[in-house]
Specification:
The protein is an alpha/beta fold. It has helices spanning 9-18, 55-85, 102-125, 136-163, 167-171, 174-191, 203-218, 222-251, 269-280, 293-326, 349-359, 385-389, 432-449, 476-489, 493-500, 506-512, 518-521, 542-551, 617-647, 659-668; strands at residues 340-345, 373-378, 398-402, 417-423, 454-459, 472-475, 527-532, 558-568, 571-572, 590-595, 607-612. The protein has a 6-stranded parallel beta sheet. β4 (417-423), α13 and β5 (454-459) form a beta-alpha-beta unit.
């Protein structure tokens, strides 16, 4: 191998000084069909022209990578020192960006594809022989693929380095060192045709970390994620060890002064893969064994790593599977960006049945929040299979876990939750005050994790309602007691409130005839709905709209309140379609409710609250035209009566109608 001609005199002097070509004699191996010496090889072995495989070229690449790493380390150290000396104020810079953006996902996918392409080119290069060299076009294609990959990883290297606060820490990190080894070796092989293989077999080691992030976005079950990550890590380990073993065994022992013929294996890359696979899995068939000193040392290291890897991964998978069965796994939503709701606290089979039957009712299909998954986080595992068989909810939308907040906030992915429901512990050994304070603290922790989520809590004492700021709280005890006492003066109030708060359909109404008392059956089909106000009803009188809706097509729709969206105390949000049970995705809006604002009140709000048998939104939109027709009729009628009154002044004494009255009646379309 001749001296390098890189055009950089210091770099050439550095390589020629430490690695002199005179110390590494060329050795040409011939096929055994031509040469019968011990150094011959059996076709189609990858071992061919050892002048391309000598330690000279490999050590030159390694020393070149070392020089680049040293230069980058010194530059990073200088940068950190200058930055530290020039810093006067804001001594501490904290970067906190845990979001995984869509652009980063796409970039990671590109990196995985490039890493796999680098593995393919490495395998292809390992089968080039002197007797059958690659065509120049194929060699150019391999160089282009490797150079494109090296360019992408170089851009990523400098981009990550620019974002890191400690440049030296980044440059000395294992991932950065692996990037330098692969990038510099690819550039060197592309420049000098006499060099052998680049160090791209190290690329899968960095690919495993990238693929781990991608797998988490897919949101598979936890055990499936662990299996996928284990397979990727196993592939990375096998390919890296196979590439290293292939190079070491084909190179043999390092020649120092005199040339020595060492027994070489007729080894191909896939033979190396087989050897590493058998060795790492601790099976050891014995059909292959390393002969070089470095190959034997690497074989011992592979055995230790294989025992540790298989033992640890097997234990991790078994632990994850056992935790998933016991309810201590992680919540999955079908996508990291999908929102869900969390039902926690004193969750029982009965409370889950009642909550899910109302939450997944068909009347709420048009709501924006309909169909969001429910994460049930209780102190004990809830069997959801029974409810799924009864058809209360789909199996993929409800997942039950064991735990409490805020300890298990990461397991339920609280940062993506749109609402939290805290059910009170009414049968606890602790006092009611302690239970209410505990729920309030847990609600506060959930609000810190997900500020945009709505919080709904159930309390036992009305005195604790004052502490429930920025949350929707309901005192269960006072509510039940108030209904019971109110039923003394207003019989039927319990059945009325129960029917309005519970959604039903014809199938359930038929079932209720045999289970509910008679007073509950009257009006069980009526429910409370929140509908959007048509634009034509804006600035109209509340009493007129109420009267018209109730009589329109004998629908019996009863309008009893108005609502508007507020962002803060006394501040209204912009008008938007928010027909949902929870706050919108952008900000935490809330509905300000006004009960019967008055007959002459001008409607300015965005929502109406009605009592009806079914969602009256379509009926409300259809009633606009008839409302204004009737209003025009009544307005004309009123004007006509005023005209009649004024015309009576000119009426004849004998009672005959005047000419003015006749003209008014004919023009208005009335019969006098």
């Amino acid at each position: 191998m001749s001296e390098w001609e890189l055009g950089v005199a210091p770099l050439e002097a550095y390589l020629d000084y430490f690695i002199s070509p005179a110390r590494f004699p060329q050795k040409i191996r011939l096929p055994c069909s031509v040469d019968t010496s011990p150094s011959c090889y059996t076709e189609p072995s990858a071992i061919n022209h050892m002048s391309m495989h000598t330690w000279l070229g490999t050590l030159r690449i390694l020393f070149l990578c070392t020089a680049v790493q040293v230069v980058l380390s010194l530059a990073a150290l200088s940068w950190d020192l200058l930055r530290k000396l020039g810093r006067r104020q804001n001594r501490y810079r904290i970067q906190c960006n845990d979001t995984y953006a869509f652009e980063e996902v796409c970039m990671d996918i590109v990196l995985v594809v490039i890493s796999l392409s680098s593995c393919v080119t490495f395998v292809a290069r390992s089968y080039e022989r002197v007797q059958q060299p690659f065509e120049e076009s194929l060699r150019i294609v391999l160089n282009i693929v490797d150079l494109v990959g090296a360019g992408v990883f170089m851009v990523r290297y400098f981009f990550k380095g620019s974002r890191d606060t400690s440049k030296l820490h980044f440059v000395m990190s294992p991932s950065a060192i692996l990037d330098i080894l692969s990038i510099v070796s690819v550039l060197a092989v592309a420049v000098d045709k006499e060099l052998w293989l680049p160090f791209t077999f190290l690329r899968p080691l960095t690919m495993s970390t990238t693929l781990r992030r991608i797998v988490t976005v897919v949101d598979l079950p936890e055990i499936a994620e662990q299996l996928a990550v284990t397979v990727v890590e196993f592939f990375s380990m096998i390919f890296t060890f196979a590439g290293l073993y292939f190079m070491l065994e084909n190179l043999g022992n390092i020649p120092l002064q005199a040339h020595e013929v060492h027994p070489q294996l007729n080894l191909s890359f896939f033979d190396s893969v087989w050897f590493v696979f058998v060795t790492v899995s601790t099976v050891g068939y014995g059909d292959f064994s390393p002969h070089s000193i470095l190959g034997q040392l690497m074989g011992g290291a592979m055995i230790l790593i294989g025992v540790i890897f298989f033992g640890s991964k097997t234990q991790e998978i078994s632990v994850i599977y056992q935790k998933a069965l016991e309810g201590y796994g992680n919540f999955r939503t079908g996508g990291r960006r999908r929102h869900h709701v969390v039902l926690t606290g004193n969750v029982t089979d009965i409370s889950l049945r009642d909550f899910s039957s109302e939450y997944f009712h068909s009347d709420h299909v048009q709501s924006k929040g309909y169909g969001r998954a429910i994460c049930v986080l209780g102190v004990r595992m809830i069997d959801t299979a029974t409810h799924v068989r009864n058809g209360l909810f789909p199996a993929h939308l409800v997942q039950a876990l064991c735990g409490t907040l805020p300890k298990d906030a990461h397991r339920v992915r609280a940062e993506n939750a749109k609402a939290f429901f805290f059910l009170p512990f009414t049968a606890s050994s602790r006092s009611a005050v302690e239970e209410d304070r505990d729920i309030l603290l847990r609600a506060l922790s959930a609000q810190k994790v997900s500020p945009a989520a709505q919080i709904f809590i159930g309390l036992q004492l009305p005195d604790c309602l004052a502490l429930a700021s920025n949350v929707t709280a309901l005192c269960i005890t006072s509510f039940k007691t108030g209904l019971l006492s109110k039923s003394c003066t207003c019989p039927g109030i319990i059945a009325l409130v129960g029917n309005l708060a519970f959604s039903s359909d014809k199938k359930r109404q038929a079932e209720f005839k045999d289970t509910l008392p008679t007073e509950y059956l009257h009006g069980v089909e009526y429910e409370v709905y929140k509908v959007k106000v048509p634009l034509d009803y804006k600035n109209q009188k509340f009493g007129e709209v109420l009267h018209h809706l109730f009589n329109f097509k004998d629908s019996g729709v009863l309008l009893f309140g108005m609502g508007c969206i507020v962002q803060g105390p006394g501040e209204r949000a912009e008008e938007e379609d928010l027909n949902s049970s929870f706050a919108p995705d952008e900000t935490d809006h809330r509905i300000h409710f006004t009960l019967h604002p008055g007959t002459n009140y001008a409607i300015t709000e965005s929502y109406m609250f009605c009592i009806a048998k079914e969602n009256p939104q379509r009926l409300l939109n259809a009633s606009v035209a008839s409302f204004f027709r009737k209003r025009s009729y009544y307005t004309t009628r009123k004007k006509f009566k005023v005209s009649i009154k004024m015309a009576n002044i000119y009426t004849n004494k004998n009672g005959a109608k005047s000419t003015v009255v006749s003209r008014l009646s004919s023009s208005a379309g009335f019969d006098g």
